[in-house]
Specification:
This protein is of the alpha/beta class. The protein has 2 domains: 245 residues, Carbamate kinase, CATH 3.40.1160; 145 residues, VC0802-like (2-Layer Sandwich). Strand 15 and strand 16 form a beta hairpin. Helix 7 packs antiparallel against helix 8 and helix 9 packs antiparallel against helix 10. The structure holds aspartic acid and magnesium ion (MG). Magnesium ion binds next to loops.
Length: 409
């Protein structure tokens, strides 16, 4: 008998009615001859409600107590779902993170999973139980409750699937899969039947918030087939399967277009072109815990050079202050910034074996008179920074240039 792990997010368990529907789906999966482990999130809005209660006491709270608080949402859902399953005649049993010994490190609010003890669960499954596990929560070596970061139930599900050697980890959510791009920007966006872990990581890190990034990393590392599908849609073969690259299958060159509206660009020009300058410029920024995304240094001329880099828009004000201070110290000619930019990226493992993708991308943008401010590339991604007013136009132009609305096999 194969094991299937199903994870249901907050909206899928948002009411008793929805929980009943989940119970029906779980029973149907079991009736197809599977052993089922269900991982659930808190009912939608619950985690935020708990956080806002705490914030009424203080904004700076003990992270240990915060985890004690916000892990309760999932405990409510496992009990309710297990009751619904039992009421429908199934034998089912719920488990909290500490009951399954979901061992994590002690970094509260973003703990990492170290180990899971699955012996009890395997025995319970073999005895015919459906197992319902609280997502998002774990326990450290000393028994303190930890949580895995917002959206962490995805990671719980993948970790369970890896530990139990499950056939598939199914993530039920309110969208029916992973799209070539955000359908709100390009209505012709198409649902992908399949995407690789690597591509999904790029899409997720660029803002396609279908899955917690850590869950995708975990699934890739342990090779857990991951399927994203809607809890409103019929089960098998549906949604998007995230899996390893398949040589048999001819890959589409480009799988999707991701974008990020949260970027800002900073430039320092006329700094001495000598060893140590890059670290003098970027050092204070990283020390302030500001994450730097793209970095470009110009070819030096007359002994000086320019640097441009991007940061999250929320960090823009702090970053520009730091850069101005560095500019004074280095005698820079100018420091300037722009927080009205976006990043658009083409993602596809097929890029590795296809030349000319970058030039087609730039030509498609040029045809729309979109000026490119920065370019960066990796093995499976090409990103450009453009003025934010060109986001929609740029995404649509590229979507059509690479034929993403058509079925490519
Ligand atoms: N309840 C947690 C959150 O809202 C975890 C999850 O939903 O995956 O982030
Ligand atoms: Mg969630």
């Amino acid at each position: 008998m194969s094991i299937i792990v199903q994870k249901y997010g907050g909206t899928s368990v948002g009411s008793i009615e929805r929980i009943q529907a989940v119970a029906d789906r779980v029973i149907a999966t079991r009736d197809k001859g599977n052993q089922v482990v269900v991982v659930v999130s808190a009912m939608s809005g619950e985690t935020n409600r708990l956080i806002s209660l705490a914030n009424q006491i203080d904004k700076k709270l003990s992270s240990r107590e915060m985890d004690v608080l916000i892990s309760t949402g999932e405990q409510v859902t496992i009990a309710l779902l297990t009751m619904a399953l039992q009421q429908k005649g199934a034998t089912a049993k719920s488990y909290t993170g500490s009951q399954i010994k979901m061992l994590t490190d002690n970094v509260h609010s973003k703990a990492r999973i170290i180990d899971i003890q699955c012996e009890n669960i395997k025995t319970d499954l073999d005895a015919g139980n459906i197992i319902v596990v609280a997502g998002f929560q774990g326990v450290d070596e000393l028994g303190n409750i930890t949580t895995l970061g917002r959206g962490g139930s995805d990671t719980t599900a993948v970790a369970m699937a890896a530990a139990l050697n499950a056939k598939e980890c199914q993530i039920y959510t309110d969208v029916d899969g992973v799209y070539t791009t955000d359908p709100r920007v390009e209505p012709k966006a198409r649902k992908l039947d399949q995407i690789t872990f690597e591509e999904m990581l790029e899409m997720a890190s660029l803002g396609s918030k279908v899955l917690q990034i850590r869950a995708v990393e975990f699934a890739g590392k342990y090779n857990v087939p991951l399927r994203v599908l809607s809890s409103f849609e019929e089960g098998e073969g549906a949604g998007t399967l995230i899996t390893t690259e398949d040589d048999e299958m001819e890959q589409a060159v480009i799988s999707g277009i991701a974008f990020n509206r949260d970027e800002a660009q900073l430039t320092i020009s006329g700094v001495p072109d000598q060893p140590g300058v890059a670290s003098e410029i970027l050092g204070p920024i990283t020390k302030a815990n500001i994450e730097i995304d793209m970095i470009v240094q110009n070819v030096g001329e007359d002994g000086t050079t320019d640097f441009t880099f991007t940061v999250h828009r929320n960090d823009y004000a702090a970053a520009i202050d730091l850069l101005e201070a560095t500019g004074k110290k280095l005698g820079a000619k100018k420091v300037k910034g722009n927080d009205a930019i976006v990043k658009i990226s083409l993602v596809g493992v097929g890029m590795r074996s296809h030349a000319g993708i970058a030039s087609s991308m730039f030509a498609a943008l040029a045809k729309e008179a979109i000026n490119i401010l920065m370019i960066s590339t990796s093995e499976i991604k090409i990103s450009v920074v453009v003025d934010e007013k060109y986001l929609e136009l740029g995404v649509r132009a590229l979507h059509s240039e690479f034929g993403l609305e058509q079925k490519t096999t």
